[in-house]
Amino acid sequence: TANPTASPSANPSARQMGAELVQLSGIRKVYNAGQPNEIEVLHGLDLRIRQGEFAALIGPSGSGKSTLLNVLGLLERASAGEYVLAGKAVSALDDDGLTRLRRDTLGFVFQFHHLLPAFSAEENVTMPARVRDGVVTPQARARARELLDAVGLAHAMDRTPAQLSGGMQQRVAIARALMLQPALVLADEPTGNLDTASSNEVFGLMRRIHDEVGTSFLVVTHDPRLAARCDRVIELVDGHIDRDGPISASTSMPSSPPSLPPSLPPS
Ligand code: ADP
Ligand code: MG
């Protein structure tokens, strides 16, 4: 059967396994430039992410992880340095160009789900298509339903966020992040607000989407057990990349521990 999360990308070249997706060189981020409270948060970062990677971003609180994700996510512009995303030089784009590139390339999952409280799970998942197209086409609705099915929420499509558990809310947020077929999902502490069981389930879902569809993930986490289940761990300390590489064999754990079902999370 067809994989519901898979479909042709708006940017086929960026989907090619191993293609360069993110290239950061010398990225600096300064807040409150020229003011007494000026602060440089990122001190000249170099980072490359290839299509198909599943990477963790770790580091102490205040080390700049969210700032880096905001720059990567085109939510904030770097103060200096070069950023090439899916082959496009970000500094050359105007705000409309940034919005388009963000929409065509990236998906976001945050610590707090940021679902719209007055809308059903299905309406929340179709929202990116509604914003892009002005309407929800039958195709968009069908895709949203397939995605909710794939994240184990076929029975909860009509519920509002308040009628869902924290783990279910994050699964809706993941389905929404996948709606427009991103090449890269940026997840900022997506399990930070969940108990251990829900956290394992949400993380396992992202891992499964990666393994089945090839979507790249960069996941900020404080949980060393989750970082150990990523293929690559990037550690940020005080605005520098302190460590970057595959996790060592001694700390490594299988990417699908026996406690996780190999198929969809139970509903
Ligand atoms: P992390 O996500 O690793 O905890 P952040 O990227 O949120 O770190 O923050 C890194 C540093 O940047 C902190 O010192 C924080 O206070 C500062 N910072 C973040 N956002 C802003 C902002 N909009 N204005 C000023 N300082 C900020
Ligand atoms: Mg943060």
UniProtKB/TrEMBL annotation:
GO (cellular component) term, any one: membrane protein complex
Biological processes per GO annotation: lipoprotein localization to outer membrane; protein localization to outer membrane; response to antibiotic
Residue segments, region Disordered: 1-15, 244-267
UniProt keyword list: Antibiotic resistance, ATP-binding, Cell membrane, Lipoprotein, Membrane, Nucleotide-binding, Transmembrane, Transmembrane helix, Transport
Annotated InterPro entries: AAA+_ATPase (IPR003593), ABC_transporter-like_ATP-bd (IPR003439), ABC_transporter-like_CS (IPR017871), ABC_transpr_LolD-like (IPR015854), MacB-like_ATP-bd (IPR017911), P-loop_NTPase (IPR027417)
UniProt key word Transferase: no
Chain ranges passing through the membrane: none
Origin: domain of life: Bacteria
Pfam family, any one: ABC_tran
GO MF terms held by the record: ATP binding; ATP hydrolysis activity; transmembrane transporter activity
Biased composition (Polar residues): 2-14
Keyword Glycosyltransferase: no
ABC transporter domain location: 22-263
Biased composition (Pro residues): 255-267
Similarity section: Belongs to the ABC transporter superfamily. Macrolide exporter (TC 3.A.1.122) family.
Protein name per Swiss-Prot or TrEMBL: Lipoprotein-releasing system ATP-binding protein
Origin species: Aquabacterium commune
